[in-house]
Design a protein that fits this description.
Chain lengths: 247, 437
């Protein structure tokens, strides 16, 4: 695979970390963006030992969209060019708090949606000029239908999902690929407070799926694969029945 | 979060825990705020209760699995304690490096390997895992971070190696890897008819082979008492290739109790003894099949059913006495009519571990496993008597039942470990074996 040059936003998330490990084992060049210098340092060292050709890291709070261009400039300078971008940052938020308090809704939308759209707008522009590249974004199965237990989070991801559809069609002719990754629930620090059931996957499994998606042809990938069919069933369910279920 | 899945490999005894998952080594200093007693839990591959902390909090170290640095010149590797030996082998074997010591399963963590001061088929050459630990970091419940080496904080270093996780949380360690010419192992398997033959082959093999171990048919009696298969191997020369181990098979349900009974075990033992026609057979195999044959069966402990399994590993000193003691142990087992699938014999070498509480010592070690049950408990208590009388010891990492008096007799240095123990750390095992006699 040679030196895959990959820029990862939210690099300290469990899924991003496992994905970076797989890329590192193939000798990739990585540029990591995350909030905590301690965490980035530990991850960068790990990826180097695992075989990454180069690892760069930059701390940033992605909620501040004004910094986005500077991050992209630095990544492009360090890597030479940006071949792949993985946008993996996000918050789950607290649904019950968000039901009572709009500032919570705003906060979730700001991180999951607005900051992502800002990055996408800027990355799309650069890759369009470059005439190549792959942009991958982690959304969620929660984006497929609003459910009482997590519709605020789901809606913030759904907005990104629709944005990606349009962006994909727009950049198709420019040779830029737009990839949407839709994991089901994953056993990570984000879901540490939840009771784990059969539905939870390990981040390693999701990461392997992300790397396969980068190498493959499909543009919208459910992780693991069975969520495609479960969500198809959930989307197809009539409101009369859906509204009575506790999902 | 409830922690029903935090059990030991033998699934006996059962425990209930509060759970705290650790994700970052620099956040580990917060553990002092948790409700005690505390105990690190890696992958739960200890058989008995050294990895359990019934009624307390387990610190799940799976998230501490980052590598920190590797010097390709010297083979020194520093990494977090929750990384598994499986992962280290997957990364470093293709680069021509091997772990200095490996146990019978690769699914253990680095922290667990240190805390139990594990040994392997090369004990006569390399000693225990602890002999290859260069330094380690302990985080104590006080929030202190202490880097320990054989020279710096030496007493804590010695107490932590084989210290059963009681001296605090091991966050990272640095170990010495060893270079290997290929990933294959050149193996010779020799059938032996009795214990005298075993000792003869063992003495000769330990001079010429890096790895030696024997399987014993513990259902055999009389003149064939102690018959079995002796396996010995060396890293094969560069360019030698062997087929990789095929895909792992998961055991997805608990087998009914019926499956393991005295007849099926006797049959298995008799057939296994005859698994090869020639008395001596040479092959070249992948390291995975040589060191970790059981790892092919994921969750093989479920074969023992819901009641769980009891492992027993003891060591008795060398010499003619040792031979007689071993004979007495095997006779006691076969007389009880209880058989073990996997009875393993190995002669330990003279290299001593830096560990204060290390189990291996010069002598011969016997490891057995049984389905848990009252008859087995009684048998193992009888074996304890024999081992104690011979001046031997029983291995804590595999124990779920030895009496406090026996433990304190086997490990008179236990009070030193108790003094160096983190006051907020404890385990089911420790509370059991340090109970007043």
């Amino acid at each position: 695979m040679g030196a895959e040059k990959t820029l990862i936003f939210g690099a300290t998330s469990a899924i991003a970390q496992q994905t970076a490990r797989l890329l590192a084992a193939r000798g990739a060049e990585l540029f990591l963006v995350g909030r905590s210098a301690d965490k980035l340092g530990a991850i960068a060292a790990d990826l180097k030992v695992r075989g990454a050709a180069q690892v760069f890291a930059r701390t940033a709070d992605l909620d501040r969209a004004s910094e986005h261009d500077a991050i992209l400039d630095e990544a492009a300078r360090r890597l030479g060019r940006i071949e792949r971008v993985l946008i993996a940052h996000g918050v789950l938020g607290e649904q019950s708090a968000a039901e009572r308090d709009f500032t919570q809704v705003e906060r979730i939308f700001h991180t999951n949606c607005a900051s992502t759209l800002s990055l996408l707008t800027r990355v799309a522009q650069r890759m369009s000029e470059q005439g190549s590249g792959t942009i991958a974004v982690i959304t969620s199965v929660a984006a497929d239908r609003g459910r009482p237990s997590n519709y605020v989070y789901g809606a913030s991801k759904a907005a990104v999902s629709v944005f990606l559809q349009g962006l994909r069609a727009r950049l198709h002719r420019r040779g830029v690929r737009v990839l949407e990754l839709k994991p089901g629930p994953v056993d990570t620090p984000m879901t540490a407070h939840m009771e784990k059931s059969w539905a939870f996957s390990r981040p390693e499994v999701i990461a392997a799926g992300i790397v396969r998606a980068f190498d493959g042809r499909r543009d919208v990938v459910y992780l693991p694969w069975f969520w495609r069919w479960i969500m198809w069933g959930i989307r197809a369910m009539p409101d009369r029945i859906f509204n009575r279920l506790t999902l | 979060m409830r922690g029903e899945q935090y059990q030991s490999w033998g699934r006996f005894p059962r425990a209930r825990h509060r759970v705290c998952r650790l994700w970052w080594r620099h956040e580990a200093r917060e553990i002092g705020r948790l409700e005690g007693p505390l105990l690190a839990y890696g992958r739960g591959r200890s058989y008995g209760d050294v990895c359990l902390n019934d009624g307390g909090t387990v610190l799940d170290t799976r998230g501490l699995d980052r590598l920190a640095c590797f010097d390709a010149g010297s083979g020194r590797l520093r990494c977090e304690a929750g990384v598994t030996l499986e992962e280290l082998l997957r990364i470093f074997v293709p680069r021509g490096w091997f772990l200095p010591v490996v146990p019978g399963t690769k699914f253990v963590t680095l922290g667990g390997a240190i805390a139990n001061d594990i040994h392997g088929k090369n004990h006569h050459r390399a000693g225990t895992f602890g002999c290859h630990v260069v330094q380690l970091e302990l985080v104590r419940s006080s929030g202190e971070r202490i880097v320990c080496t054989p020279e710096r904080n030496a007493e804590l270093f010695r107490a932590t190696i084989g210290g059963l996780g009681l001296t605090g949380l091991i966050t990272w360690a640095e170990i010495q890897l060893k270079p290997i010419p290929s990933r294959a192992i050149a193996v010779e398997t020799i059938r032996f008819a009795n214990l005298d033959e075993f000792f003869e082959i063992s003495a000769q093999s330990d001079r010429e082979f890096e790895y030696t171990v024997a399987w014993v048919d513990c259902a055999a009696r009389g003149s064939s008492l102690g018959r079995g298969l002796f396996m010995r191997g060396n890293h094969a020369d560069a360019g030698q290739r062997a087929p990789r181990q095929s895909r792992a098979i998961p055991i997805v349900f608990d087998f009914p109790q019926l499956v393991l009974n005295r007849w099926s075990m006797k049959l298995f033992n008799a057939l296994y003894y005859r698994k090869q026609w020639p008395e001596r057979k040479s092959t070249v195999v992948d390291f995975d099949s040589f060191f970790f044959p059981l790892d092919r069966l994921l969750d093989w402990n479920r074969i023992y059913g819901r009641r769980g399994l009891l492992q027993y590993q003891c060591v008795v000193p060398h010499g003619h006495d040792g031979r007689a003691v071993l004979r007495q142990l095997l006779e006691t087992i076969s007389a009880a009519g209880l058989f073990s699938f996997l009875a393993v014999l190995k002669v330990f070498g003279n290299l001593s571990s830096p560990g204060l509480m290390s189990f291996p010592r010069p002598g011969v070690t016997l490891a057995l496993d049984f389905p848990a049950g009252p008859g087995v408990m009684a048998l193992l208590a009888r074996l304890d008597r024999v081992v104690a009388a011979a001046g031997g010891a029983v291995y804590p990492a595999k124990d779920a039942r030895m009496a406090a008096a026996d433990f304190q007799h086997f490990y008179p240095q236990w009070e030193r470990l108790d003094a160096l123990r983190d006051p907020k750390f404890s385990s089911s095992f420790w509370r059991r074996v340090t109970a007043p006699i």
